[in-house]
Design brief:
about 325 residues; alpha+beta; Phosphatase 2c, domain 1; 2 domains; 5-stranded antiparallel β-sheet; 6 helices
Length: about 325
């Protein structure tokens, strides 16, 4: 039986319509896929462009910080310079970031040697900026204002930082920043040391015994009442060794139980190594804290100054 031509045409039309619809939907899907690919390529190009911009910005920022580090290092006395005053001395200094909120200073005026160690609020750029201000105030207090009493110098620093950082800004906020500090004044002729501190203790080791001189719990720049800082006076002996330090070493997490290093462990370490040559002491301190961290990130700037106050100079 021969099919009716009308039905043949009808079936053919259906087939053609079906094929046309398939081609239409496939073409539309292809066009949509192509558009999505183009949009994805454009998005990837935009991401790559933003990545390059961020990398350039990060490099510029890092370069700026490295340059700032060089400026800060130029302002901080080198270990070689420090040993011009104390032949037996070392400086362990490990910033958390490229620049540091910890700083130290040494100078001589009227046959007295001034040693300063300080820890500014924060670390990185804010701390580094604070350290620059602190260095300027210290230098002015000792070399221009001719202050020799460490308690009086801390009082002047407190007033200076209060004046600088407690001013109300245009944005309606008040900056409240300060620093912890330890300041020694050594008189070699009288074999005597005067010390004042703000949250900074001083450790003196003599005959294998450690004596702690505590600083006042009054942050420099945050003592608006102007409470006077305590002046400590101690007679020195030839083999005495002194340590002043920031809390970065003490507060570092690590060890088997991932706890802070703490003052007790630090005192024990110093009593074990204080009789070693100063370069060995520095190496042990560095190796010990690195082993203690055991992969933990460094949490704060670290600074330890160790010196024999009557060890003489290399001038």
């Amino acid at each position: 039986m021969i099919a009716d031509p009308i039905w043949i045409i009808f079936y053919a039309a259906l087939v053609i319509l079906f094929i046309s619809m398939v081609i239409f939907f496939q073409t539309r899907n292809l066009l949509r896929t192509r558009r999505l690919l183009i949009e994805k390529e454009q998005a990837l190009d935009q991401i790559e462009k933003q990545k390059l911009e961020l990398e350039t910005r990060d490099k510029n920022m890092t370069d700026s910080l490295i340059y700032a580090q060089r400026i800060q290092e130029a302002l901080l006395p080198s270990e070689e310079y420090f040993r011009r005053f104390f032949s037996d001395s070392f400086i362990f200094f490990r910033p958390k970031d490229i620049v540091s909120g910890d700083f130290y200073w040494i100078g001589e005026k009227k046959n007295k040697i001034f040693v300063v160690a300080a820890d500014c609020t924060g670390h990185g750029v804010p701390g580094a900026l604070m350290s620059m201000i602190g260095l300027e105030i210290i230098d002015k207090a000792i070399n221009e204002d001719n202050l020799q009493n460490p308690a009086a110098i801390l009082g002047l620093m407190n007033r200076g930082l209060e004046k600088t950082f407690s001013r109300e800004k245009n944005i309606g906020t008040i900056i409240r920043d300060g620093m912890d500090i330890g300041l020694c004044v050594i008189d070699r002729q009288k074999k005597r040391i005067e010390y004042s501190g703000a949250f900074f203790p001083l450790y003196l080791i003599r005959d294998n015994s450690l004596t702690e001189i505590k600083g006042d719990k009054l942050i420099i720049g945050m003592n608006p009442e102007g409470i006077q800082y305590t002046l400590h006076e101690v007679d020195l002996m030839d083999n005495d060794i002194i340590y002043i330090f920031s809390d970065g070493y003490i507060d570092q997490f690590g060890g088997e139980e991932n706890k802070k290093f703490m003052y007790r462990r630090f005192r024990y370490l110093l009593t074990r190594i204080h009789a070693f040559p100063v370069d060995d002491q520095k190496s042990i301190l560095e190796d010990h804290i690195t082993a203690w961290m055991a992969g933990n990130p460094q949490l704060d700037d670290m600074m330890v100054l160790g010196f024999k106050p009557l060890s003489g100079s290399t001038k």
